[in-house]
Amino acid sequence: MLRTLSLEQPGTSGKKGFRKKKPLLLLAYLALDGSKSRRHLAELLWPGASDGLNSLSVALTQLRAAGVRIEGEEVLRVEIPCDAVELQTALARGELAEARRLYKGRFLEGADDGLPPELEEWVWAKREALAEAVWAAHLRQAEALYGLGWSEEAQALVQEARHLPGVEGLIEEEPTLLAFAPEVRRAFFAVELVGLARAVELLGVGAEALDALVGRGLLGTQGQPMLQVPLTVEGRRVALELARKLPLSEAAPLYQAARAHWEEADVPRGRMALLRLARAQVEEQPQEALALLADLAPDPELLLLRARALERLGRYKEALELLDKLPPSPERSALRGSVLLRLGHFAEAQAEAEAAAQGGVYPQAEALNLQGMMLLGQGRFQEAAEAFSRAAVRFLMAGEEVRHLGALGNRAVALAEMGQGEAAFAEVLEAIGERGGLRARVYLNLGVLKERQGQPAEAERLYKESLALARGNLEAMGRAWNNLGALYHRQGRWEEAKAAYREALRLARAGQEWVLTAAVLANLAELTGEQASLEEAIALLEEARYTVLAERYRSRLEAFRPC
Q1: Distances (CA, A) of 39 to 42, 69, 121, 448
Q2: pLDDT at 114
Q3: How far does CA 181 lie from the centroid of its chain?
Q4: Displacement of CA 305 from its chain's centroid (Å)
Q5: Structural contact between residues 182 and 149, judged by C-beta atoms closer than 8 angstroms
Q6: Could you point out which of 41, 117, 175, 538 has its C-alpha 20 to 30 Å from the C-alpha of 73?
Q7: Model confidence over 388-424: pLDDT tens digits?
Q8: What is the reported pLDDT for 481?
Q9: pTM, entire model
Q10: CA 372, CA 395: separation in Å to the nearest integer?
Q11: Alpha-carbon distance 360 to 44, whole Å?
Q12: 492: left (phi > 0), else alpha (psi -120 to 50), else beta?
């Protein structure tokens, strides 16, 4: 109803909708102004008609035939999606980008010719009210942004709003934007960062500042912020104030936000908080863990954690380069062995696993998991499953829950090779619960099992589910697309396979997952017959020191060369 008067039904995209003017005006009126009596509607739309109620009945019949559900007998009401109503909702929520998307033009522009006087007055009043609401919402948010320190963004928002249809003519005077008092800005950022109660408790935020925020619509009735804004320099300083007073377990995100403002006295505690958070994130959010560690002074503990994040991201060459700078230790051997195995250096990986087994519970667990991976590669599936089981127990003893679940997933893969995978996968999925990132990886392996069992449709469903759950994890999403590409490839769905491989390639490159990049390039080469793709895959593997896998692909290269 914004700009045009039409009724579009679901599934009719591109088709001409219902466009009878009077029935649609009736529908617009009911949608925006709520329940009305038949007599009121007849007098509004057909004033002076000999039988307005009959005209109303005809219009209602036409709307119902078009699929509109109108309820009531004497008093009529309707519930139907309406862009003008959606606009009002978006404005009330402060969702201004959505409001601008919806506000494509002035309300019912061009549909007000020849209307009865009272109905024409309603259209004009509604048109002006919606334009005023759009301007008021934008001005209110611009005032808030300016007051909190985002002056350029505030001015840009005002200019964007004033150029929307029907707004410029409503502006009687240029708005004056003013900065808030320092204590008001400090109060807002404190509440945004830790909530009202903690802001009062930790920083002594006063009632006067809070009243000012409520009066400007920046705090709701429950003390919740009504606007989310990035932290200014002042906001980051407030974050540092709070971080100094919060328990270490809660302080890390605030120390991170305020990193540029640390003083010398903040370094020991801030560093400890970021290291603790990075350890908690490294398995499921390795990219975030890496970002946390980026600005901290390196020492053996930090370098080992950084190498662990790189290994989880599939950046094995970088991880190995870091590990080679560290002094020998069981923890270093555990991680180095995993990286060497991924790079195809089995003898060296075995030696590192033996060194890791001499350490504490955690390196022992990694050594057993590594041993299981090598046994899996040798086709010794029962022994691999037993090694993974022992690793899972030790990971649990070490408090490494994510690694524990990963070992259980590896055990399920080994058992699947012996035809016993269904129950094992069900067990690990139950243990994982709703942790989407971990479920995504299990679904990938379970999909492979379903393919082997001759259930391609179920495998495709699992790969797509994995893709949805892995959103944001470039490596896991890349593997899901590669698996989908391989499935479509085997089914002869060439175009879908090519599209899936290309998306996998994009994600693998973005995540610097060079082994996956090489695997996808090799799959693309097999699909398209392009020798250059396979040559690029081999070059990538050699650069990443995947010599064994590079040789395997080199042998496949012969198939592309003319006899």
Answers
A1: 5, 20, 19, 66
A2: 84
A3: 35
A4: 25
A5: no
A6: 117
A7: 999 999 999 999 998 999 999 999 999 988 888 788 8
A8: 96
A9: 0.70
A10: 14
A11: 84
A12: left
Is the distance from CB of 444 to CB of 463 less than 8 angstroms?
yes
CA distance 470 to 463: 10
How do 75-78 and 36-37 pair as beta strands? antiparallel
Round to whole Å and give the CA distance between 363 and 357.
Answer: 6
Residue 268 tokens read as 């020991």
Under a CB-based contact definition with an 8 Å cutoff, are residues 103 and 134 in contact? yes
Q: Is the pLDDT of residue 265 over 80?
A: yes
Cα distance between residue 100 and residue 116, in whole Å:
31
Q: What is the pLDDT of residue 353?
A: 95
Q: 163: closest CA among 127, 141, 134?
A: 134
Phi, psi dihedrals of residue 70, rounded to the nearest 5°: -110, 125
Q: Is the pLDDT of residue 333 over 50?
A: yes
Mean pLDDT confidence for 57-85: 91
> Which two tokens mark 461?
């469903």
Q: Which of 223-232, 422-431, 455-464, 534-543 has the highest mean pLDDT?
A: 455-464
Q: What is the pLDDT at residue 204?
A: 95
Joined together, the tokens standing for residue 412 give 């399920």
The values of phi and psi at residue 2, to 5°, are -75, 115
Q: What angle do CA 386, 390, 395 make, to 5 degrees?
A: 145
Q: What is the dihedral of CA 296, 297, 300, 302, to 10 degrees?
A: 0
Tokens of 398: 């070490």
How far apart CA 144 and CA 138 sit, in angstroms, is 10
Q: What is the mean pLDDT of residues 234-255?
A: 95
Cα–Cα distance, 256 to 304 (Å, whole number): 20
| Model pLDDT, residue 379 | 86
